[in-house]
Amino acid sequence: MEQSYVEVSTGPVSFADVIEVARGGAAVRLSATALDAIDRARAVVDELAASPTPAYGVSTGFGALATRHIAPELRTQLQRSLVRSHAAGSGPEVEREVVRALMLLRLSTLATGHTGVRRQTAQLIADLLTHGITPVVREYGSLGCSGDLAPLSHCALALMGEGEVRDAAGTLMSAADALAAAGLQPVELAEKEGLALINGTDGMLGMLVMAIVDLRRLLATADIAAAMSVEGQLATDRVFAPELQAIRPHPGQAASAANLVALLTGSGVVASHRGPDCNRVQDAYSLRCSPQVHGAARDTVEHAATVAGRELASAVDNPVVLFDDAGGRLESNGNFHGAPVAYVLDFLAIIAADVASISERRTDRFLDKARNHGLPPFLADDPGVDSGHMIAQYTQAAIVSELKRLANPASVDSIPSSAMQEDHVSMGWSAARKLRRSVDGLTRVVAIEVLTAARALDLRAPLMPSPATGAVVRLLREAGIAGPGPDRHLSPEIEAAVSLVHSGAVLAAAQSVIGELK
Predict the structure, then answer these.
(1) Active site residues
(2) H/E/C letters for each residue in 348-407?
(3) Residues 262-281: pLDDT tens digits?
(4) Is 5-200 CATH 1.10.275.10?
């Protein structure tokens, strides 16, 4: 099968491009327009390199050492030294998809024609992505200011033919061997190129884009889980009516409520207690207020997407090449500061924790005979002999507790560095790393709610669930997750449900019946 390509030009790459390259393994090529822009900016750097006047990043040291003028014969060594010294990460390897995302986004900035690299340097990044060569990047090392320096330096090191990488098959090897096996030549970095390769928010931005994509899917799936819980706990769907949402016009709330209405349409369970003899006045907040919580989370995700879109359209480097009627010039700036990205990464960790919290509360109600309206305690087959889903809720609770800790913002912390030259940093990389754990935790919590609600709906027989929620129950059963019965090893069923939520299969099952959810 022919490998798909993503073309990088002078404009921003899209969310879809990031996902296609990071997770789909797509190849990458530079457009002719991008190559022309790269050449134009490089000409400015070459002119400054030949000038006797010092220019930061071209003929000087870096950071707190910027006052030293570097002689021409030492500048190649300067670039090598910069990358080697800054490739100082420590800890576990960062996931392949994260490294591929940050490489693509760094290439996107180079393609804007504001960084001053040579075309062969930019091309080699595209070649590594195309050949599936992934530099080994370590967990710790970025403060999220002056860019994700250490992570990007590990990638720049591979362009020099140094350090460790993994090939397309995942085999760990030296960068020199991987380049040779792919028929690629390492580059000897010229003036300005070291800074241009490492001075960006690409790592935190790549993780933000992937988290937004994942959270959009998860929030739609959380609506499915909530609908199953509303149904299984004999709650009302009247509170989700559009006229009620219209008098508090938050768009996310309206979308979530509309999803719940669509998901519950045709439910025999809901219809069974809709008559005038129903004595339920109001449902618990975790059921009644699902659209308000899920909706606020949706609105926060879309704010984060706006910020990510702006950052994707940015050329983050210092210094940058600018052009006006007088020609090209080099200007220092502070655009590498990760604050805009760091803040929204922290916001998303907060909403992941809160959506997981309300999901856990809905699940817990199924297990308490005083609140589950006629279901057996813990949904057990023979309560006392069997424990049912008692400990599945413990697992949820443990995850939710961790998510609350992860919701503590990283971006409010700052540790000065570089001899007080870099005296305020964003910690955006740290915010991104913990958000990835938060997204995973939310996936698991929602999966356990789906698993528990499906069991409850089976126990409501002969009352029938809605066509949409019934499709989700069938999906679980067809995946080998059995219905109610005596206790059995529960962990494999939880992991199977997690996989179905993570892959989007739960969302697809509901949408196969009622069409695309909002």
Answers:
(1) 56
(2) HHHHHHHHHHHHHHHHHHHHCCCCCCCCCHHHCCCECCECCCHHHHHHHHHHHHHHHHHC
(3) 999 999 999 998 866 666 66
(4) yes
